[in-house]
Design brief:
Elements: E1 14-17, E2 34-39, H1 47-57, E3 62-66, H2 80-102, E4 112-114
Parallel strand pairs: 1-2, 2-3, 3-4
Length: 117
């Protein structure tokens, strides 16, 4: 989770790509909305796990799922289609971070699925 381990810092929003190494028991201690970006073919993190974490965190968090994409698709695209989805994922993240620093809570909750080509 982006910057989640910085102690003593205050963050307005968080971002998690691919959702590995998350402890569901700690989700209720997160006090800011978190954007989760993952592929529905990720063998290391099921979409259902991310949606459970999203519910535990509460209002404002969002899960964005890219259909047909596996673990690491945005950071290591292996095809032109994955490269296009990587650009979309980073744009979504950039907008999330931008909106999170400008808007007051609660952020509108949106569950999204992005269809692959």
């Amino acid at each position: 989770m982006l910057l989640s381990r910085d102690q003593g810092a205050c963050f307005g929003v968080g971002v998690s790509f691919y959702g590995t190494r998350m402890d569901p028991a700690l989700a209720s201690t997160i006090r800011v909305p978190v954007l989760f970006i993952s592929g529905d073919s990720d063998p290391l993190c099921a979409v259902s796990f991310l949606k459970d974490i999203e519910k535990r965190i509460g209002e404002g968090s969002e899960v964005v799922v890219f259909e047909g994409r596996g673990h690491g698709f945005a950071h290591n695209p292996s095809s032109p289609e994955e490269d296009e989805d990587a650009e979309k994922a980073f744009t979504i993240m950039r907008n999330w971070l931008h909106e999170g620093t400008l808007l007051s809570y609660p952020l509108q909750r949106r569950n999204s699925t992005i269809k692959g080509d």
